[in-house]
Amino acid sequence: DISGKLTTPQEKILYSEERKKRIKEGESNIVNEVHIYLKDQYEELDLGNVEFPISDINEIRILDRNTGKEIAVYALIGIGALAIASAITAATKSSCPYVYVDNGESFVFEGEIYGGSIGKNLERIDYMPLPSLKMDQGNYTIRLSNELKERQYTNLLELVLVQHPEGEIVLLDKAGNPHLVGEAVLPVEAISSSHEDILPLLSEKDSKIHLFDDTEVNKNTVVLRFRRPTGVQLANLVIKGKNTLWFDYLFGEFIEKFGVSYADWMKKQSENDPADRMRTILDSDFPLSISIWNNGQWESVDHLMTVGPLASREFVIPLDLGNLNEDDIQIKLQTGFMFWELDYTAMDFRWNTNLTSKALQPFIAIGTGSRDWKDALKKSDNLYMAQENTGEITEIVFTVPDAIKDKPHTPFLKVQGYYELVRDFEGLPEWTQLRKFKVPGYFSDFSKERYLDVIHMDYEIASNEME
């Protein structure tokens, strides 16, 4: 249970659900606020000593220290005190490089880049939407930040500007191709592994999410069904989601099992064949895998790599329906137990490949210590921007050509790189436990087992308190 003394705040509460503005002068205390929301059936609590079970928590919001923007920890619902404590820790740490953008008032957190690229042999290109980025006197400015125990290496960094008709919405697929998605329609059905209708959760971009948390199955899935317009051969699936804080915590538990051998293990991993490492990632169900139903079976379409637990991202997945022998379109999303949280799904049945894109190289790229990283970021080569110490920041400015400046366009970050986790674990490796992770799919089983352990622990604590 959670217990304590509820008192009148000594200082003004700065955060509210209706808050639109970013942190202003004199509002720095907002980053010390943590907001706990109980389930709807709760009446307003009276001042004085209060106590309630953890299972009655509906949501916890932790505020980003740079923006005052809430981080809604929905993944904590019903998990217990251990997960709450770990997730609060996770919400203030870094799992991959952070991106901040100038929104015209201040720099605000936008998300994490090349998530899961732990080691040079997993280096990859990542495309990130930048919805908060605003132009200032013909320039766009972003910051890349290393905020915890990591070494981060960025090989290439560009700003991709996609021109499009006024009022349209555009997303880049994982290959960097632009697609219009502004007329996306909702599925007519969304069924979870537990046969629950979750369409109401996925119909709005509102942080009401599905957690892939069915404990009765080995593979957690969501099956979406869309009406197929007559004659349509191509479509774009739109997904909004991110990784859970639970997954972040769980991965930390896994690597800690290596104890003093962690550095040696990580060195060996970085020397493995990249295809073998990627196969292990796919077998462990870390990505969000996408399949389509055709001719009585599921056919693999694509997968989305991890994006971190701190900011949702919108994705577009192109679909070729030319060989689809079905009246309706059925899409299966699959991942490990509570590895992802899903906020929104839809499909746009238009296809426009005539969009014009312009890739901008940095005009200025100045890092900590006045280090000039512009040349390192210009192209994919063996020259990297190395942010190897906690607290290192690089500010990058892009100058927009006059021919684009006043025309409708949407900016995206194209970035290539990898990072290394710096850990100093103690104790002997737990080899017996670690061997289990060599079995495909075991990481999901491990997640479910740890979840049930914590739920059982909370149940025993509650039972003992009742006796």
Describe this structure in words.
The protein is α+β, with helices and mostly antiparallel strands and 467 residues long. The protein is built from nine helices and 26 strands. It has a six-stranded antiparallel β-sheet. Strands 8, 10, 21, 24 and 26 form a five-stranded antiparallel β-sheet that branches. It has a five-stranded antiparallel β-sheet with strand order 13-14-19-16-17, with no helix packed on it. α1 (81-90) packs across α3. It is globular and about 60 Å long.
Strand order of the largest sheet: 7-6-9-25-22-23
**How many β-strands, per DSSP?**
26
Q: Indicate the mean pLDDT.
A: 87
Shape from CA axes?
Answer: globular
Percentage of residues in strands: 35-45%
| Category by helix and strand content | alpha+beta
